[in-house]
Design brief:
Elements lengths: L4 H6 L4 E2 L5 H6 L11 H4 L1 H13 L4 E3 L7 H5 L7 H16 L4 E6 L13 H17 L4 E7 L2 H14 L3 E6 L2 E2 L5 E2 L6 H11 L3 E9 H14 L5 E6 L4 E3 L2 E3 L4 H14 L3 E4 L5 H11 L1
Parallel strand pairs: 1-12, 2-3, 3-4, 4-5, 5-8, 8-9, 9-12
Antiparallel strand pairs: 6-7, 10-11
Helix pairs in contact: 4-6, 6-7, 7-8, 8-9, 9-10, 10-11, 11-12
Length: 293
């Protein structure tokens, strides 16, 4: 029986996660405005190819094609009755790619609803995260990764829903913007330190950050996390640099070598799991593996 992610981290290993998914789905034909999660049912081989690409690059773990798989997001595509099916399929596909030795992180993104604005109740949020987490677990996920969160209340509810309804390792990452003051905050004003304190109370196993920053910016975020907790495992999924608009296209400028150059410093700052977000490819992940292993 393979060790859990927490057991591996406790052994002092720096683990490597996967990279971006959305750009590859688009390259395979996903049209703007269409549902990425529906591809788990109608184009499973295309989704599997993406997962296999990251496993071939040497990733220790891969996510699932389920970021927008909650009932609120799927309702926009008329697919709210397929929450269980599409999430379970997402996990089954990544499980097939990962085999018995690698790890599957069931991806869960924000709902797009705000408690502060009265869009939704706490119970409705809890139930939405609960049904998604259960489906991902039953499809074979080893962990649930709640990612790109900005509001601490939603993130905390998501953590509780995953902890209380699955035996999975629960990871939560928030996305932080770099302010003119030099500080990092989410869109809702949450600092990395505040994130750690609140999510630990909710029962999270692993915290971290994803998106919004290149890998160099993630170093300071990791240092702030470590300033309030020296022990909690930290996962970082950085973009391939800050996006640049070239004509009508968004380009992420960091090459695999540029990203990998900062990886040892990020690990030294306290990151236990390092992977990629927007703009990263299997080539980026392969270079991270070479540098960190």
């Amino acid at each position: 029986m393979k060790p859990t992610l927490l057991e591996l981290i406790s052994q002092g290993k720096t683990l490597v996660s996967d990279g971006a998914w959305g750009t590859f789905l688009q390259a395979k034909g996903l049209q703007p405005g269409k549902c990425p999660e529906e591809w788990n049912a109608i184009h499973p081989q295309e989704v599997l190819d993406i997962a296999l690409g990251y496993i071939a690059a040497g990733a220790d773990m891969i996510e699932t094609n389920s970021f927008g798989g909650n009932r609120f997001k799927l309702e926009g595509f008329g697919l709210e009755d397929q929450v269980y099916l599409l999430n379970r399929k997402a996990a089954e596909i990544s499980r097939q790619a990962a085999g018995d030795d690698k790890y599957v992180l069931g991806s869960v993104g924000p709902t797009g609803k705000m408690l502060l604005m009265g869009d939704v109740t706490e119970e409705e949020l809890y139930q939405a995260f609960k049904e998604q987490a259960i489906a991902l677990y039953e499809g074979g996920a080893d962990a649930i990764i709640l990612e790109t969160m900005t509001a601490i209340d939603e993130a905390s509810i998501a953590v509780r829903a995953a902890r209380e309804n699955t035996p999975c390792t629960v990871i939560c990452t928030m996305t932080f913007d770099h302010l003119l003051t030099g500080d990092y905050r989410t869109m809702m004003g949450v600092s990395p330190a505040e994130m750690v304190i609140a999510l630990k109370e909710a029962g999270v196993h692993i915290v971290g950050a994803n998106c919004s920053n290149g890998i160099e910016g993630m170093i300071k975020i990791t240092e702030e996390i470590r300033s309030v907790d020296a022990d909690i495992p930290v996962l970082i999924h950085a973009n391939a640099g800050l996006p640049i608009l070239q004509g009508s296209c968004t380009v992420f400028p960091e090459s695999p070598d540029m990203m990998a150059a900062f990886a040892p410093q990020l690990a030294n700052a306290g990151a236990n799991i390092i992977g990629g977000c927007c703009g990263t490819t299997p080539d980026h992940i392969h270079r991270l593996v070479e540098v960190l292993k």
